[in-house]
Design a protein that fits this description.
homodimer; alpha/beta; eight-stranded mixed β-sheet; 13 helices; binds adenosine-5'-triphosphate; binds magnesium ion
């Protein structure tokens, strides 16, 4: 099972939209996908039409170890299963503060299901707290959705510092898979400048012993497309809602890239 | 001094952009404004061209009570002063966990400067943790930037619950001033639907004893405008960067509305 954490502490950059639709695209290509909603906002859960208030066993119960992973998994689409979130998850961070090895709880809980799925995608909250650390300990790859805006670029160094710490102290296998440009508006000067900054930043890391020295910019860019913002209100993925729009094309192309490992850059 | 917390736990909805440019617009209208950056990402600090690594005394020192408020305030523009942020701020939440009355530290520290400014605006991080609670305890009004998207609307009920709790237990004067639509794209069906949902939600609250029963939707809508995303890379407000663009117009109109209290709806 390939384990990918979709994270960025900058808010509103497309983490949930990417987790939802990349999973759906991988499932269309025959991959069995397990999703985990680690955000107390429970937006991944809502995006798939599951009501957080109805979730009895989910990510929270897994973290406070009051339930087994098998009871936390629900099938939501063909080839897509979900460990859902509800608002109690916001309490997990303070409840786990003094637990020994608190960052590894999720990793250990998921070990049992390693052979049942081809991919595991974790949607992270917009912070670098304990929930995100659990995701980084349980994953082997990090996918960083990023908006081609100046403020979104500011946090990248801090994000990569955190990934380095987790790799050095908790999870030696962790590496940055790629940076994914979301809500992309080609043609704006800002987008051109940010892409240039990003490309030279990643090029400098090549060959050095860093968790992101193999990281690249995905060739696929997710273009800004209002349909991607409309489909969550119907509890649908972009493929349920509007399978021939640009949003669907972009996420299919991303899935092909993730599967093929083709990330020339 | 009017004290306003700019908050929404949903990420990337325009909190920092609104804090930055509303302050600049109010300053142009002769108001003396104090800004506080309570987000460990320090984006408000960066937006005004201040390097977080150079900040020796800022919001963190105020919260851990290692410095007096006078030493934390820096003048950054005519009529605009800032209590800046740096990355240590992320540690404040765990360092304050067991302090008695931890939510009131900021409020008490700011009492001394009440007569020195006309407005105080606090930029909050995308969470409902202790930093945001300090902002809600120190403020009398809450301004909620919101993107007219379905996912952004989901968190509103939880946000208002938190405001109610703070009003009931910590700060009886707290009320919701208004919801501000940001990155607004007028012609989309999604925008029309969300505005309808929002307007009927707020209308239902009128006359009931709720912290948001007087809340309204600001008449001003901040339209999507790439210049608002470009100006932070120069450390400038929209008025420094492109004073005649739509972004500048919208924030001037918002300032007029905030000053005039004209919020018919
Ligand atoms: N390519 C796109 N085009 C248009 N809208 C988009 C696109 N991707 C995401 N959105 C919308 O932008 C908003 C932010 O996206 P999303 O919620 O996925 O970001 P996030 O990083 O998960 O946010 P948070 O930090 O709050 O978890 C949502 O309303 C979403 O519907
Ligand atoms: N009206 C607008 N038009 C275009 N871009 C905008 C607009 N308002 C904000 N932006 C851009 O959108 C992104 C998100 O805005 P901003 O950072 O202000 O949101 P935020 O709510 O403060 O995010 P966070 O939750 O991470 O603190 C930024 O890159 C900003 O430059
Ligand atoms: Mg999200
Ligand atoms: Mg912000």
């Amino acid at each position: 099972m390939r384990r990918i954490a979709i994270m960025n502490q900058k808010g509103g950059v497309g983490k949930t939209t990417t987790t939802t639709n990349l999973a759906a695209a991988l499932a269309l290509k025959g991959q069995r996908v397990l999703l985990i909603d680690l955000d107390p906002q429970a937006h991944l859960t809502i995006h798939y039409g599951v009501e957080p208030a109805d979730v009895e066993v989910g990510a929270y119960e897994l973290l406070v170890q009051s339930a087994l992973v098998e009871t936390a998994i629900r099938t939501i689409r063909k080839n897509v299963s979900l460990i859902a979130a509800h608002t109690d998850l916001v309490a997990a961070e303070s409840e786990l503060v003094s637990i020994v090895g608190r960052e590894m709880i999720l990793r250990d809980a998921l070990a049992k299901v390693d052979d049942d799925f081809d991919f595991m995608l974790i949607d992270c909250p917009p912070s670098l707290g304990l929930l995100t650390l659990n995701a980084l300990a349980a994953a082997e790859e990090v996918c960083i959705p990023l908006q081609a805006h100046f403020l979104a670029l500011q946090g990248l160094a801090k994000l990569l510092d955190t990934v380095s710490l987790v790799q050095a102290r908790i999870n030696p296998a962790l590496r940055v898979g790629g940076v994914l440009l979301c809500m992309f508006e080609a043609g704006t000067r800002l987008a051109v400048e940010v892409v240039e900054d990003l490309t030279s930043f990643l090029a400098e890391a090549k060959g050095r012993q860093l968790p992101w020295s193999e990281a690249c910019l995905f060739n696929t860019r997710i273009r800004r497309n209002i349909k991607l913002a409309e489909c969550p209100s119907y509890g649908q993925t972009i493929f349920d809602y509007e399978p021939r729009c640009r949003g669907a094309e972009d996420y299919l192309s991303l899935a092909a890239e993730v599967l093929g490992g083709i990330q020339e850059n």
